[in-house]
Amino acid sequence: MSLARIAHLGFISIAGLLATGCQPGPFDQTLAELAQRDLGALHTSDARLLDRAILESPAPMDTGDDVGDLIDVDAFVEIALERNPTILAAQHRVRRLNERIVQATSLEDPVFGVTPIGEMAETAAGQVQVQTSISQRFPFPGKLKTRGRVAAQDVAIAEQELARTRLSVVADTRRAYWSVYYAVRAIEVTQSNRDLLSQLLEVAQAKYRTGTATQESVLRASVELNNLDNELITLEQRRATAVGMLNMLIDRPVTATIADLPAVDLGAFESRLDDLLRTAVMVNPVIKALRERITRFREQRALARLNRRPDVTVGMSYNLVNNDGLSGVANGDNQWAVGFRFNVPIWLNRLAAAEREATRGVLESAGMLAGAQNRVAFEVQDAFVRADTQRRQSILLRDVIVPEARQTVEASLSGYRAGDVDFLTLIDNWRKLLDFQLMYQSSLSELEKSFADLQLAVGRDLPRTSDAHNFGASGDDAKAEDNQ
Questions:
Q1: Fewer Cβ within 10 Å of end Cβ, the chain: N or C?
Q2: Angstrom distance (rounded) from CA 218 to CA 203
Q3: Among positive and negative, which fits the CA dihedral 179, 184, 188, 190?
Q4: CA-to-CA distance for 476 and 474, rounded, in angstroms?
Q5: For residue 312, what are the β-bridge partners?
Q6: Cβ atoms of 241 and 168 closer than 8 Å
Q7: What are the start-end ranges of the E strands in 28-127?
Q8: At residue 101, what are phi and psi to the nearest 5 degrees?
Q9: What does the pLDDT look like over 66-117, one tens digit per residue?
Q10: Residue 322 lies in a domain
Q11: Residue 415 lies in domain
Q12: What is the rounded CA–CA span in Å between residue 362 and residue 297?
């Protein structure tokens, strides 16, 4: 066989091998085409993300949906869970890491070798023309399964991070909703008081014309009226900011409109602080993720121990032998052989360092877990106390302070008309009523935000009741309030 023919045979072998192992390049395909080829039909939310990536859009595209008609906080939460890009990214991270399990538990590719050119061995039958070989490495028993368990722990950690992301988005959505709610209620309250102040100004102007009131009364009412207009401008800005935040969380254009939210009553829940603390230790995804992290390092250490065991590589060689040798008795059969190779794990320092690294990872995660448990306990206690305090303030404002302030304004107005109360006293009482009404709406809004913080700290949704007097009370306090 000529040298040119041997070279030709080698090149054909290499080209055929490469052709069987390669797929068409993706460089001429779009992101959507690549995703559909690898994953099949895309979900609507995934298609939206790809569209934004392709168009390099800085903001979500207006889909013409009817989200602007929603008024219930739970409806906004449901939309956020379905469309929030941060949640979608966390979901795909879980799926991405899940693909590593198959990779970690699979054998390496076999290695095929061909040597068509060179100074080959000379046999009695003739010269060796082409040398070929194929080998496969088999890890020590247990290594592949352990690698799979390590990869599975990465998935478990990512799943808890996904749960944490979902809880964070839910809490942020609820906070944004109640920020919008407060702005809407504050605008209503301020506008209503502006109408009342306009009436007081008309009364003061009428009394001034008859000489029974001073110009100072008219000017004070006019100043307060202008001040309310300024406050309304500020509240409109707060509402626009809160609406933009809510739109961002549900992946809508920040300038999209949202319907005015209806007034709600005080809400409550029946859980006790000790129960919430115990629940948080078991279900909070941050704590669960750190427990999974400890398990991962334990599996990593097991894999490091298995690396002290040798792997075996099984190989086979096949050589093509020419039959034009000098020996007339040689049979000219091609040569073949089967062999075994073992790696020798002799660098013990490296192997021991890998084991120590995994053990220190366990200790590191244990420290992180203890810190997270302390932090979660504080967050639960802090949110619980804030919510309970705001609940009590809301009840006091709603049932006592605001009604009494309203009665004071009505009495002052009657006294002013009768000439028994000066106008400045009337304006001061009116301003206190406005402040108390705004304080009630703010307290109600902050109560709901604190409750959202509490659910985030505990790590799950908490049931609500309509009886505000039972919110977070101890057993004896709840019975005492029920008897009132």
A1: C
A2: 9
A3: positive
A4: 6
A5: 138, 342
A6: no
A7: 111-115
A8: -65, -45
A9: 676 778 899 999 999 998 999 999 999 999 999 999 999 999 999 988 877 7
A10: no
A11: 76-106+139-309+345-482
A12: 6
